[in-house]
Amino acid sequence: MIDLSSVDAGFSRKAKLYDDYCENHPVIRWARDTVRQGVRSKLKTGDAILELNAGTGSDAAYFVANNYRVHATDFASGMVSAIKEKISISEKKDQFTTQQISFTDLDYVIGAPFDLVFSNLGGLNCIPDLGMVTKFLSRLLKPGGHVVWVVMPPFCPWELSLILRGKFRVATRRFNPNGVLANIEGVKVRTWYHSSKKVVEAFGSEFQLVKKQSLSLFCPPSYMDRFPHRFPNLTKILLHLDDRFGDRYPFHNWGDFVAYTFRYG
């Protein structure tokens, strides 16, 4: 069961801090750049993107600036307000729209069909069954369209290594089938971690898996935010390893996030 009121409250509070935090975090900047290039490789100029869990609209603003049309959706009122601020200063307002809506209510999304449906950095981990979202995709996508979703998997080696520091509960939390309560700016929001098998099953036979790529497998997860500032040169080396091996078996199943690309039809 999804507690949408907690999702709204927690992520609305986070909206005030999120852009500055991400902009100053080298690992998040790298992850966003990696995912954005993957999205652009599946599009041509002027194509339409539906973004789920768009947050403050940073990715949406980037794609609009690069001549794509974006309909950015989020359930949290604070996030939608941040998106509207970005639209107000955009030079391409006619290509940039937003809608406050949950990913469980995508029947009501305006602007379909789209060339690509996008969700970045774990927004879809707020739902226990991705099938609750994928059931809408055939209506939302054009034939031959793509889905690029970045999801947190159960197996994150850096997180498991916390066992060595005696943090057993944190180290094993991703394996809890009932999800865990994440602290989002003082609000408890239940989070589930989705294996590659479950992600692929949720898409079914209408979709073909094109690519998987791990993010922050060799490099520590972004919440270990002291690491890149204490060890900047080592961080660059580890990010290079992520770039080189992140889309190869078996590494593409593990990490802080996994980016999935599917083709429809």
Compact summary:
The chain is 37% helix and 22% strand. The protein is an alpha/beta fold.
CATH architecture: 3-Layer(aba) Sandwich
Poorly predicted regions: none
Proportion of residues in β-strands? 15-25%
Corresponding CATH superfamily:
Vaccinia Virus protein VP39
Number of strands: 9
SSE string: HHEHEHEEHHEHHEEHEHHE
Number of DSSP helices?
11
Description of the molecule:
The protein has a single domain, classed as 3-Layer(aba) Sandwich (Rossmann fold), CATH 3.40.50.150. 37% of the residues lie in helices and 22% in strands. The strands form two sheets. It has a seven-stranded mixed beta sheet, with helices on both faces. Strands 6-7 form a two-stranded antiparallel ribbon. The two termini are 31 Å apart. β2, α4 and β3 form a beta-alpha-beta unit. It is of the alpha/beta class.
